[in-house]
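debug: dumping io for the single-chain case to check the tokenizer round-trip. Nothing else runs in this session.
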Amino acid sequence: MSSIEQLQTLAQYILPEEIFTYFDIVNIEESANVLHIYLDEQPDIPQEYQTLSLESKGFYPEAEICDFPLRDKKVILHVRRRRWLNTSTGGSVSREWKLTAEGTRYTEGFATFLKGLLGFIPDYGPLS
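debug: decoded output
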């Protein structure tokens, strides 16, 4: 098993389950006590758009989402969603994701944990 496969196996125990249904880990880096995990949406055309004539047009700009800290390291997920062009209409098509808690940049699980622990979701400090 290659080192990237080992990291992916480990990440499956750490990251939200829905991440692995629709995203691939493309890189993992550590810098200044922050673990950066880079995720790209898988290239499969969404089921709901299978009947349309779509052409891949790359990715939307990367979004950063904070997840549970690991071993005193902040974890940031760098997520890139795919974008398709509907060649019949000229419009863009993409999946809608509910990866973050409403109004935050935290995964839903992490936001729920913080709210239970602190009584609120912080928008500043070491957890933001």
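debug: round-trip ok. Helices lie at 3-14, 17-22, 108-118.
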